[in-house]
Amino acid sequence: MTTEAHAESRKERGESLLAERFALFAECLLTGVWIAVAALPLVTYPAAFAAGARHLGRRLAHERGGWREFAADFRSALRGGWLVGLAGWAVLAAVWVDVRAVRAGLPGGALVGAVGVSALIGAAVAVLRAAAAWTPGVTWRSLLAAAGRRTVLDPAGSFLIVGGLAVVALSAWFVAPLAVPVLGAVAAAAVAVEERYLRR
């Protein structure tokens, strides 16, 4: 939807720009709760983010959608998404071993640890970008391959997603329950970054 069409649609609904932005912010927080609930089995976090991103995309396009549509998207994304989630935990375990090697003072451990942490951050960004681009019927393998390229070719967008992840981590550190709704803001950031990349 173009900016002019978007403004016209807002006028037809009798909604101010401030009200629209606040409603979107509230929707992001609610979506974060949905993502957290859907990600409770631990390997389902890619599918949860994909469903959350689709929900926010519908909200931005002023299409109807709620919990039922989120749940349907989640079930569809879960078909290959759980394998991505499992692989993510395997990468995290490998990085944890690297960090333990650094702390043990092994030769070259600092370099291995830095590479491992950088790879973990890059993988997290690629998964979020893939989730933001997910649509029913598209395979996670093709999504991740394309998202990996975008992660490298669009460092500014990738940095924005890293910033979103940092906000979640800091929220959890200060007040753990705050991290739950903030997950929706991370999904929104991934959607915005993907939109920005497509319009370049």
Give structural notes:
The protein has 200 residues and is an all-alpha fold. The chain is 82% helix and 0% strand. It contains eight helices and no strands. The longest helix is centred in the middle third of the chain and has 37 residues. It is globular. The mean pLDDT is 90.
Topology record:
Elements (H helix, E strand, L loop, with lengths): L2 H11 L3 H22 L6 H16 L6 H37 L5 H25 L6 H14 L1 H20 L4 H20 L2
Overall geometric form: globular
Find the count of extended strands (DSSP E, 2+ residues).
Answer: 0
Q: Please compute the radius of gyration using only Cα atoms.
A: 18 Å
Distance between the termini: 16 Å
- N-to-C SSE series? HHHHHHHH
Mean pLDDT: 90
Going by helix content, strand content and strand pairing, the class is mainly alpha
The number of helices is 8
* Percent of sequence in beta strands: under 5%
Main beta sheet, described?
A: none
Brief synopsis:
With 200 residues, this protein is mainly α. The chain has helices at 3-13, 17-38, 45-60, 67-103, 109-133, 140-153, 155-174, 179-198.
Supply the key terms.
single chain, 200 residues, mainly alpha, 8 helices, 82% helix, 0% strand
